[in-house]
Structures are given as C-alpha cells and as structure tokens.
Design goal:
With 273 residues, this protein is of the alpha/beta class. The chain folds into 3 domains: 92 residues, Elongation Factor Tu (Ef-tu), domain 3 (Beta Barrel), CATH 2.40.30; 118 residues, Nucleotide-binding domain of ferredoxin-NADP reductase (FNR) module (Rossmann fold, 3-Layer(aba) Sandwich), CATH 3.40.50; 56 residues, no CATH class. Helix content is 21%, strand content 34%. The chain is built from 7 helices and 18 strands. It has a 7-stranded antiparallel beta sheet. Strands 11-10-9-8-12-13-16 form a 7-stranded mixed beta sheet, sandwiched between helices. Helix 4 runs parallel beside helix 5. The longest helix is centred in the C-terminal third of the chain and has 14 residues. The protein is globular. The structure holds flavin-adenine dinucleotide (FAD) and FE2/S2 (inorganic) cluster (FES).
C-alpha cells in the first residue's frame, strides 16, 4: 500500500467565506487506496491538482474518514481555477504531507492570521477533541470581513480574541500587537502560530523574549511537495520545508537565517519578504 497516495475526490461543496476566500469540501470516492492514509493532522497539507492548470499546496482545514476540506484565497492561476469549481466536479489530491503541530498540555496560545488560519482552526478542534485545556485564541485579519471561522472559535474557547488592522471589529491592531498586550497580562506555556511570514516572525521574536516555545506553520513556494525540486529549501540549514515542515519549532527557527526576511520565489530566485 502506498503511504502517500494520489486520489481523485468529488467536490461536495464550495462556499465563499469572505471576498475571494473559499472553502472546498471534498468527499472520498471509491478507490483502491486505504482511506486511513488520508486522515490528516493539524498543520499538514495536501497538494491539489487542477488538470491543465497546475498543482499547489493547501493546508488542511478539516479531515475525517469521509471528507477533507481546505480554504484558499483567489490569488493566481490555480486558485482562480479552483474558485470556478462546482459541486460534483472532480479534483485530484496528494498527501497529506508534512509535519504536524505537537499537542501539549498547559496554557496554550493559538494565533492565526488572515487566510492562513485553517491549521489553527483544525488544531483548536483537535485540542478539544482530545480533552486538552481550553486554549486562548487570537484571530487577526486586515478588516472584519476577513476574520474567518469566528463563530467556531467562539464555541471552542471562552478566551477568544479578534484583531483587525483597521479596527473595524474588536482590537484595533495586528495579531502581534494584541499578543504583546496578552503576554503582559497572562502566562502561556506554548504558542502555536499560522499566518503571513512577517507576522509569524515578529510573533516568534515576542515569544522568544518571554522564553515561550513556539510551533509555527511556514508557507514557502512549493512545487513537488515531496523533497525533490528544492524550491522550498530554507537557508542556511538546507531544511526542506515540504518534508521537515511546514510546522517548525523554536529550536529549528532560531537557525533559519532567512526566516521573516528572504524567500525563494517561483523561479527559485531569492527575494525580500
Ligand atoms: C504548506 C503550504 C500551505 C498552504 N496553505 C494554503 C491555504 O490553506 N490557503 C491558501 O490560500 N494558500 C495556501 N498556501 C499557498 C498556496 O499554495 C498559494 O495560494 C498558491 O500557491 C497560489 O497559487 P496560484 O497558482 O493561485 O497563484 P500563483 O500564480 O502561483 O501566484 C500568485 C501570486 O502569489 C505569490 N505566491 C504564490 N504562492 C506563494 C507562497 N506560498 N508564498 C508567497 N507568495 C506566493 C506568487 O509569487 C504570485 O505573486 C499554502 C502554501 C504552502 C507552502
Ligand atoms: S517543494 Fe520540492 S523540495 Fe519541497
């Protein structure tokens, strides 16, 4: 049996979460693959292929024995094609790939930013399902329209905080500013982050000041997703993010000099973040 199979799945539903942000729910169709290999953990990703257009990685937002969902922002060729998908269409996926968040007991702070929030949402569900302590959650976006999964987060914890860059809802400021405020009032044992890399980087620096260990999901340009093409390699360690990430610990991140500063683009050239 192949551990990381490729599977064609049926689109059950596509819904617009916010302007240009969509969630697609896929159902398993009959297959010669063992479905247990598709059950994903929070932080892992799948490669989604649109025939004739391309294949891109997406974080898994929800995964059970019968279905799998992901959320995406319409930004370029693949996501443009995905936004036109209709129920009953077929999509081919590979995975799940990559490292997962490590669940820990204690006072956990979960921080999600923009449309990179799906792994945080899945992590919050997993913590609840497995009977871990209720986490504190920060959900941040540019404006209130882009705050994803607010109702679900509200049900998952009594310590749910929102931040908007323009102050259109709740805290006026970004995720890191709200995090700074919380850290002056409360003690946390661990911080889990998924968001734009600049945000993740400054949140990481803040956590380092307080000596709190972090796990961060990093998004870099990925082509193969299985360690062959080198497009996701992080300098100077040569860490292959699609295999050794996307979730990285503080110990690993301390040695990644290009974290928050530089990345490889589509062509493999290095550019500023
Ligand atoms: C592990 C992982 C998980 C991801 N999870 C999600 C997710 O849950 N939802 C989601 O919407 N996206 C996610 N992404 C990013 C997703 O793969 C990109 O949105 C997708 O590549 C855009 O594809 P496209 O063909 O539509 O755009 P393209 O035509 O490839 O690109 C459009 C523009 O976006 C830039 N761009 C594309 N991908 C990236 C990237 N990874 N980092 C920085 N700039 C980029 C390009 O340089 C270009 O300017 C994830 C990426 C990784 C590596
Ligand atoms: S995406 Fe090809 S090596 Fe990581």
């Amino acid at each position: 049996m192949i551990k990381y199979p490729r599977m064609t799945m049926t689109v059950v539903n596509i819904r617009e979460e916010a302007n240009d942000i969509f969630t697609i729910e896929l159902a398993f169709v009959n297959s010669n693959c063992d479905i247990k290999y598709f059950i994903a953990k929070p932080g892992q990703f799948i490669m989604v292929q649109v025939f004739g257009v391309g294949e891109k990685p997406f974080s898994i937002f929800h995964s059970v024995e019968t279905s799998l969902s992901f959320t995406f922002k319409r930004i370029g060729s693949v996501t443009e094609a995905l936004a036109k998908i209709k129920p009953h269409d077929l999509l081919t996926i590979r995975g799940p790939y990559g490292t997962e968040y490590t669940l820990s007991h204690g006072r956990n702070l979960l921080i999600g930013g923009g449309y990179a929030t799906p792994p945080i949402r899945m992590l919050a569900y997993e913590l609840k399902k497995q009977g871990f302590e209720e986490p504190t959650i920060i959900n941040a976006a540019r404006t209130q329209e882009y705050l994803l999964y607010s109702q679900e987060f509200n049900k998952l914890t009594n310590a749910y905080h929102e931040a908007t860059d323009d102050g259109s809802r709740a805290y006026h400021g970004n995720a890191v500013e709200l995090m700074r405020d919380l850290l002056t009032q409360e003690k946390f044992d661990k911080i889990y982050i998924s968001g734009p890399e600049k945000m993740a980087y400054f949140a990481f620096l803040e956590a380092e000041k307080y000596g709190i260990p972090c796990e961060i999901s990093l998004e870099r340009y990925m082509k193969c997703g299985v360690g062959i093409c080198g497009s996701c390699v992080l300098d100077p360690t040569g860490l292959i993010l699609c295999q050794e990430g996307p979730v990285l610990s503080s110990e690993t991140l301390r040695n990644i000099e290009d974290f928050g500063k530089l990345l490889r683009n589509k062509t493999g050239s290095i550019e500023k973040i």
